[in-house]
Amino acid sequence: MLLKYLNMIKMYKKAGSKIISVYWFAMILLVAGGIFGMVYLFYSHPYDVRELEAEALSNSIANCLSNQGEINKAILDSEGFNESFKNNFLEECHLNLNSEDIFGGIPQYYLEIHFFNSNNLEKSLFNFSEGNLNLISSCEIQKEKEYQREAVCLEKEFFSLDKFNEELYLIKILTIVRKTEKNVK
Amino acid sequence: MFKKRNNHGKVLMENVVFIILNVMFLMILVLFISKSGQGASLLEETYSKQISLLIDSAKPGMTIVLNMEKAREIAEKNGLEFEEIIFSRDNLITVKLDENSGHSYSYFNKININLYPDSEINSYVIKILEYD
User: Fold this and answer.
1) Exposed end of chain B (fewer CB within 10 Å): N or C?
2) Do A19 and B36 touch (CB under 8 A)?
3) Domain boundaries, chain B
4) pTM to 2 decimals?
């Protein structure tokens, strides 16, 4: 049996066989290992949907603040900006900023809204914010370079008229979504 | 003359075996890659995030039909009924395709939803009701 096996090896060696070549097996193992590693790395990272979420949140707020180019009457009426809207902003815009238990009750969003008169874009006439103020530092850090483990910031701005179509206002919305543990490894 | 022909046959046979082994190796790799993208945990994460984002972008009166054929296959393989793989609690969507796993993702839209399976079309229907 052993003799037969040795003869077989000899035969393969003689023909310069590719089948039992050590190099060939080494190459196969290297390629398989490389592909396995790449697939594992690719699928072990969660999908990062924070940018999409920030975009959806920002659109939702924009729709709440202005409808068909006119500022919501609950915010701006003939007497000016309505302060009570600030306190009920989440209720008025049908938003719920509670997140999963994994975050230990710490809010994972921050929203900031500014209204400017189109004649003076320097001074904000009316502004309010909601959520976790600590997240705003993520935007400062990421001004030059993007860091995956920091919260995602999205700024949106658009013009809207008051209900009498007399004044034009610039509305700036800053949306920040953290949820790092659910979106980044 | 006869010996030479015999050697040719041996070389041909070796090449055939070599090609067959290479093809087998490639097939195993392709199978591994395609299987990797269909794991229960990966689908749970994808579906929970997808449904949450759909609800976030939805408005009252909308009806969303989400095809979940792949999820159904995996859940039934793992002994779970199609009717019990997705559930919504508070503002959290949970997808569970295996007894020992599950993925949840929250949505910010404060809205009432009605989530139910439609087994005939392997889909889940999300009815967006009025604002909460």
Assistant:
1) N
2) no
3) 1-36, 40-131
4) 0.82
d(CA A74, CA B99): 48
The enclosing H or E element of B106 equals: strand B103-106
Structure confidence at residue A108 (pLDDT):
93
CA gap A117, A121 in Å, rounded: 6
Q: Which residue has the tokens 């022909």?
A: B5
CB environment B105-117: b (16+ within 10 A), e (fewer): bbbbbbbebebeb
What residues are paired with A71 via a beta bridge? A66
A50 contact residues in B (CB cutoff 8 A): none
> How far apart are the C-alpha atoms of B105 and A133, rounded to whole Å?
22
Instruction: Report the residue of chain B nearest A61, measured CA to CA.
Output: B109
Domain ranges of chain A: 2-44, 50-183
Band of pLDDT at residue A147, cut at 50, 70 and 90: confident
Instruction: Say yes or no for a CB contact (<8 Å) between A60 and B109.
Output: yes
Q: How far lies B75's CA from each of A104, B52, B104, B131, in Å?
A: 30, 20, 16, 32
How far A19 CA lies from chain B's nearest CA (Å)? Answer: 6
How far is A85 from A73, CA to CA, in rounded Å? Answer: 10
Nearest CA in chain B to A15: B11
Q: Are A120 and A92 in contact (CB under 8 A)?
A: no
For A91, the closest chain B residue by CA position comes to B110
Of B53, B105, B111, the CB nearest to A94: B111
